[in-house]
């Protein structure tokens, strides 16, 4: 057997070009039966990238045939390429055929049957499919005289190892989290659900990035109309790049103009597995550790894994604390403004005297005080988030203490306002879902304006509008306020309270009863976001 090294240096690409030009080039290129021509086209297509590796050698002794193995350095499993591709071709080809067949198809079949030792092998006859496979980390094997290519499954490279979740921390429960590899993430779920009814579908989204997206559901538990709706919305997406699961989330959500999240995301495999068992659909996007769960309801954003690893009584207490925290987050400053500005008679006389004494030298009304402190608190929160983790929390806490002391001593803000804003900020941290906490922080400013203009009448009007808006929301055909509206007795076992574990059933009827049959129009993809939210370019 004769082996020959081959450089991967080729002609320089003619400028950077653009996506349209690349697409036009791809449309006219084909896998040639001339090996050198095909290799030259690959080099030109990739601009002679230094991470493109090409290894040429001959197999067969009587009538040797030139073969090339093409792969992208950094995207492949080096051990698999060295041992099961290169080594196998050298060793097994000589044993399999001293004389290579004359027909190209027979040569290809010989290598497929007796030379390669990979578990995943496929034949590619389309240029675009071959290039996509190459850029996905597979090894492409080309034979001189053959217009088809062999794809060897050698995906690999460096990935972050499975580690403890960074955002969804629990006291008791699994300590693993999703990573950036879609295959690893699917495996983390399958280790928890060892059932043949766990079905997986793959699709590629992004005309440039060709990002892998996996759709997971439990056959027989997930409703077919929900799965079909999710699949349809994914296929409607027309976008160049998908770099994070939030891209998908924003394009498949039911309503665009709402602060409330209608798609749940998690980095915990146990949470994803539990949602699958409840009949929901999980979407895993390659390159991100956050998976999406649909459909979802408001109560889901106030639940935590700790609710199911602790006793039901303590879990119920903690859940009620979270609901109370949400109310404080929404209404805390606005109630204080309404009391001190419009409704003095509702404040006890000793407290009223103390409040008026504090406000004696303060130049701003209560509404302006609240706006200043809320804005300052949001700035500190954002600064703490963007700074390194080691100093971020320290900056937030120390900054809040120093700022609060300074504004009180300067006579700009009353001490009670500092307490109210601090309590509101702490309440936002008690909400398990970051997305829901952000929604509460946004809505809080609306209640501030309403309370500063009309007092409790403004707050009441705001609550009516808020409840009506939430009640109008749906997530893939499921009412957002379910199982409270429409009311379901069975659903109350795990909503405001968490009853003992033996009373909780994860059968698909739990989710199915939430669906509002009177609103089947959205099940057919006719929601308002279908026109502006799911098919954005």
Automatic annotation (TrEMBL):
Q: Name one GO cellular component term.
A: membrane
Keyword Membrane tagged: yes
Any Gene Ontology biological process: spore germination
> Can you tell me where the transmembrane regions are?
320-342, 392-413, 419-438, 445-470
Q: Where is the composition biased (Polar residues)?
A: 1-10, 513-528
Q: Where is this region: Disordered?
A: 1-20, 511-537
Keyword tags:
Membrane, Transmembrane, Transmembrane helix
Indicate yes or no for the key word Iron: no
**InterPro entries in UniProt:** Spore_Ger, UPF0353/GerABKA_families
Family under the similarity heading: Belongs to the GerABKA family.
Q: What is this protein called?
A: Spore germination protein
> What is the protein's species of origin?
Paenibacillus rhizophilus
